Amino acid sequence: MDGTAKVENAPSQRREVWARRAEFVLANLGYAVGSGNVWRFPYICYRNGGGAFLIPYVMALFLCAVPMVFLEFVLGQSTQRGTTQAFALICPLMKGLGFAPVIMSYLTCIYFSTTVSWTLFYLLSSFSNPLPWTYCNATWNVAENCSISDYSNATHLSSPSQQFFDYRLLGISEGIDMMGSIRWELAGLLLLAWLTVYLCLFKGLHFTGKVVYFTSLFPYVVLLSLLINNVRLPGATDGILFFLTPQWHRLQEVQIWLDAACLILYSTGVGFGVMVSMASYNKFSDILRDSLIVSVANAATSIFAGLVIFSAIGYLAQLRKLPVKDIAAAGPGLAFIVYPEILTLMPVAQLWAVLFFLMLFLLGTGSQFPLVEVAVTCVKDSFGAMLPPSARRKEVLVALICVPGFLINLLHVTQGGVYLFYLMDHFTVSLSVLTVAFTEAVVVIWIFGIRRFSVLVQRITGGPPPLFFKACWLVITPVLLFVILISRFVQYSPPRYGKSYEYPVWAQVLGWMFTLASMVWIPLGALHELYLRKGTLIQRLRASVVPELSVTDPPKQQGECVPLSSI
After folding, report:
1. How would DSSP label each residue in 459-517?
2. Going by C-beta distance under 8 Å and a sequence separation of 6 or more, which residues neighbour residue 404?
3. CATH number (domain holding residue 212)
4. CA distance from start to end of the chain
5. What are the residues whose beta carbons fall under 8 Å from the beta carbon of 65, sequence distance 6 or more?
């Protein structure tokens, strides 16, 4: 058998599959490895004790990330359905759990596309000589506040790269209540970003599978080139040592363990539904190995990117005669403010700037089109039969997803758009993905059942899941996710932009609406399922947790398909 699942009353058209296993692995690796590996991991690592942070990070990788990636791969591959249909099959009561990641992924893709447009702006600007954020004599500079020397001890001074980001790129307003006009240059680049995603998806998996060879592998070439160049610079060793030197006493703090677990979950992309959707197009194969490859390669890339970034920060610190800790910045500022400033000091600055921002563009695009694919798979699996034949074509369906996303995304390229961007970044993912991941682990292992799930694993891999994974699925991973989730509620702090701007109350309410926009589907789906059932409430509840995924004794031969009941 070829590994595609049999579905009663399924459409006659055969479901697409990845042409090669390598394409499936690279697509998931490209999704997991994004621009956040370049700017989020290095900063959080050094903020939490440098090399000491790697200990809880690696532990969380194997106790939480790898088991959840493996779980999502098994779920998608065994059901041959996207996240919406997959969860409805294993537990009808929790069918809303399948829609939550779709909304979360779509919202994430919308605001994440903003950083891709920023990257394109910097990429095009990198062809200027000198780089336009080198000096304080440009028309957008506020000359009395601009300094190319030591500005760390004067709060009213800022660097040329900071002013380029604020005034040339963003044309930033004073707050989220002053959105201002659209930055048409950014709007055009935003259109190009969405068009790139469309071109990666509209021809189906056979074309996408070829694209991922470039989008997933070329960034590693650039990272290696940057590292070779950076380590030869004076002060690079100081930056690397600052990044990796352990502060062992920090391991006694709870926060370092929570940050490590959160970071590896966000980095691998667990809970977004992407890996379920990707695996649903996969032929039956040993996805345990694929899970390890994707998860470990993603973590290794983060560490590798940290070496690249902090070797350059050490160089800048020596030139500015500042401590390394005064150079590093949080969030995207590391990629769009600090590193561009470092690039101006390098030999052949334009070449390194072009390579750096081309790498960020490819990393961003590689993470973006799987997020769109989640929505495409959802529409195709859940509503495909209701669409007119012309709308079922992949090129039309992808356009129906991308066009509204681009139009909504235009809000982020207004003068106040950056405030909306940070608001969505603060609220859209944090609590939502933890809630989805925890609920996912409980539903699959405790409601669908570890015995049934082990049968699915054996059908795919030819053997039962290792005891280590059973222990993680049953106890370790759900407990870790629950502790992290509760801690995030307890430690909630209002969002800020920069060090001084505080969001008004109405904006914080809007942020919580972004969070609820995805999580609300879980209780709504349960209420809808109970409403459709007949009998008493207890009878409806019992019937709604009976899986529609028919699981019998495992077959004797690897790759035999799991039969599904009528959907």
Report:
1. HHHSSPPPHHHHHIIIIIHHHHHHHHHHHHHHT----EETTTEE--HHHHHHHHHHHHH
2. none
3. 1.20.1740.10
4. 22
5. 264, 265, 267, 268, 270, 295, 299
Residue 205: pLDDT band by 50, 70, 90 thresholds?
A: low
User: Using CA atoms, how far apart are residues 213 and 249, in angstroms rounded to an integer?
Assistant: 42
Residue 90 Cα to chain centre, angstroms: 25
3-state secondary structure 515-533: HHHHHCHHHHHHHHHHHHC
Length of the chain in terms of residues written: 567
CA distance 1 to 527: 39
- Give per-residue burial for 135-163: e unless 16+ CB within 10 Å, then b: ebebeebeeeebbeeebeeeeeebbbbbb
pLDDT band for position 19 (50/70/90)? confident
Cite the DSSP H helix spans in 321-449.
Answer: 333, 339-343, 349-383, 394-409, 417-427, 430-442
Instruction: Quote helix, strand, coil % in the chain, to nearest 5.
Output: 70, 0, 30
Torsion-angle region of residue 138: left (phi > 0), alpha (psi -120 to 50) or beta?
A: beta
Q: Count up the domains in the chain and report the number.
A: 1
For residue 119, what pLDDT is reported? 94
pLDDT at 491: 80
Whether 5 is in a domain gets the answer no
563 belongs to a structural domain: no
Residue 380, domain extent: 21-544
The two counts, helices (H) then strands (E), for the chain are 25, 2
Q: Please calculate the CA angle 266-404-216 and round it to the nearest 5 degrees.
A: 40
In a domain, 360, yes or no: yes
Model pTM score: 0.86
CA-nearest of 237, 310, 287 to 462 is 287
Q: Count CB atoms within 10 A of the CB of residue 224.
A: 12
Cβ atoms of 160 and 136 closer than 8 Å: yes
470 CA to centre of own chain: 26
Q: Is the peptide bond before 130 cis (omega within 30 degrees of 0)?
A: yes
Tokens of 55: 């200990």
pLDDT higher at 48 or 552:
48
Distance CA 372, CA 363 (A): 15
